Amino acid sequence: MAEYEWQRIARSIEEEIRTGRIPAGGALPGIVRLAETYGVADRTVRRALQDLRERGLIETLPHKGSFVVDVLPTAPTANDDGA
Question: What is the residue range of 56's domain?
Fold first, then answer.
């Protein structure tokens, strides 16, 4: 199954977080900047950020932006069956 653009963006940002390129407590670029970087609409970036929030990787503060949480959830492993 093909990957949606928002999934590709969320995966890319997650990789930056997990490798430390965006550190714990670090701010993510704004929605407009991310949309320009990935060449997508703002709503696509918003959906990617929603996914990252739902998975506990980032938090969004009104009028301040999105930030990496201080303690990251464990990344699922290749053999994680979701049970």
Answer: 5-68
